[in-house]
Please model this.
Amino acid sequence: MHILCSQNKIIKAINIAARAISSRTTMPILECFLLEANEFFKISANDLELAVETNPVEANIIEKGAVAINAKMFGDIIRRLPEDEVIIKVEENFLTYIKSGKAEFKLMGQNSDDFPKLPDIEKINPYVLAARDMRNIIRQTIFSISTAEDKPSLTGGLIETEEGHIKLITVDNFRISLRKEEILEGEENLSVIIPGKTLHELSRILPDQGNLKIHFSEKNALFEIEEGKIVSRLIEGEFLRYKQVLKQEYKTSFTVNQQVFLQALERSMLISTETRKTPVSFNIEKDKLIITSQAEVGNLYEELEISVQGVTPLEISFNPKYLTDIVKVMDMEYIHLNFSTSLSPCIIEGESTDKYTYLILPVRTS
Model:
């Protein structure tokens, strides 16, 4: 292989492919980028759970070929080269020359045939939505993905499609997060579980502009954007039957300004410590919300004006961090909080929209 390519173009491709480099592996090949120069030059990475392949990188291909090369070393070298034009040449025994200006490196590569191939997914009838919308629904749910290894199906997010919408649902021991968005194409109803790592890395790659195409096979998902494609395995197993949990009868509800409420919650966390999370307590009265928090180092008392419907008064307590995680990602002026009893879950929704639905369990206090 022998190519000439702009340093900036290689760095852009490296930054995308690096999302699938394995940080913990006993297989050296998984610590590598696959560099391929055939009709086009492209860079790939694969940790056997998540794989990324960049779209063709503009380059002058002098000789076709491929090599697997240590990703960290290759990336560090490319980023620190003195000039924009980079020469990459692979010779016998996969010895790889990297040259720019008067700087020249020699790295030992590996046989590209040993690099794991991306799963083959048939591209028929994709689901299409704005890339920015997908990035947002991940951002607004990913914080409640479970880390409990005894429930592997909950370590990912459930993607469902129905009636022209896509939903992403995540669950941990204290919360359910549901975010819904319209899709541009795709009619078949679907229900699959995407690993949390995939969602996290996908959110970092998705651009502000353009569309995202999603293809599914029996065991894998393929996400296509202008910069490249991401292939992920699917998690097998049964997800929580969240629809039954979210169906509740409310006795008390209030509407509050999202920013005002968020700032009050953040203030309530100031007297918490890392070793002991102090609950925040709500006393919902006819026209106001009284927020209190008591810790060994001090206490908080604050009143907010709210619009209340239903039975009052009601007292209920929450872990302020878990509640703040939800409120801060709700991109709207007003939000609704719905309650049944002081010991029942709270359902949080957006104003005049069904795109946001969150459930959070209360904290028992003495």
In short: The longest strand covers residues 175-182. The chain is about 15% helix and 40% strand. The radius of gyration is 25 Å.
